[in-house]
Here is the input.
Amino acid sequence: MATISIGGLATGLDTNGIIEQLVALERRRAVTLLEDEQRVAQGRQSALGTLQGKVSALLGAVDALRDPASALARKATSSDETLVRATAGSGAITGTTEITVAALARGAIATSAAGKSSADATVAAGAGSFSFRLGSRDVQTVAVDGTTTLAGLAAAINGLGAGVAATVVNVGTSSAPDYRLRVASKGTGTSNDLTIVTDDTDLGVAVTQAAQNASFTVSGFATPFIREGNVVNDAIPGVTLGLQAAGGPVTIAVETDGDAVAADVQKVVDAFGDLVAFVAQQSEVVQDTGSQDRDVLAGPLAFDGTVRNLLSGLRTSVSAALEDAVGDFSLLAEVGVSSMRDGALAFDRGKLDQALAADEDGVAALFAGGGSAGGVFDRLHDYLTGVTQPGGLLDVRTRSVTQQVDLLQDRIDAGERQVDAYEQNLRATFTNLELLVSRLQSQSSFLLGALGRTS
Here is the structure.
């Protein structure tokens, strides 16, 4: 039922003002203080979400250095890139290998013996077909008739999606055109050889280039390598070869890429420092000199025990000695990664270069371990994964804060309903008061009038 507010007409009081002040006091108690508390919790929720992202970024940087096969990036160089190009990847082993290319892989090509003056010229006298086979695959056929043009035949062949590309090529000149059909296999190697099965056109299509496999020798093997393509990734472990031309021998050298290793380490250092700096910034406690009460302002992660424990575990994972170290190094500090006073990491590239020169395998073992033993970055990976996975330290804390935000919202909604009910009750009470005073005033006027008439 709607409440009618008279607003002090009888009493002369500013009842609306009184109600507004009383409601404001009730709102502060039932809603505003909870909203302030919720804003703090939401700030913490947002900060934890950002922290989660920075932990994930650190985990990504760490994972580039925890695989024994790729902990130390390799680079491959070719003594003659006009013959063979080389790219090193995961699992590449340092050393040199000689490659001699006898033949490149190529696809098959069929061309027409007879030419046409136009791509729109017809190619058959009547109904028939044009069919071909690619390797040992099924025969592919297109129908032709007296209306089939050279361009139409090429389009029909392409429409089969049979692993060949048909084109119309003018082998003549603009003044004396000579248009021919060219059908080429898209793949290379003998499995893509082309056979013309039926040709009911007047083009005289025949294979002019047979498909061929690549053939090359690798030092240490007496038998040549035969491959269907010119990109080879199984001749030298972890190295992809791009065969460019016949010739050789070409020396392929694989060595550790110091610049790439340093870049990977720097990414870990940067991601670690970014995380530490973010936590420090979000944990600042300062005095608000602009307020009368000189209030203390605390960042959303200040006094958060979970975050402190997270950083403590991170620092231990990075700085602690590696037990059962396989090589000569057991601390990251020995290869140039050390802790600073603010908790971030410092990186000395020169020290890393010295360590790589002295014991490259030892550096790899420190980073990624060897055999059944893990490395420092394995340890860091396990810790980061543990705190972020469902049920982990950071996950539990984030869900707890989210639940707090949701609970506060429920209490705020209940407080709003309570304030609305309180305001309605006040307005009803003051309205009744105004009505009562109004009736009393009416009675008083009546009595005074009656007494005046009597006298």
Observations:
- The longest helix spans residues 393-454.
- DSSP finds eight helices and 19 strands in the chain.
- The two ends are 47 Å apart (CA to CA).
- The first strand starts at residue 74 and ends at 78.
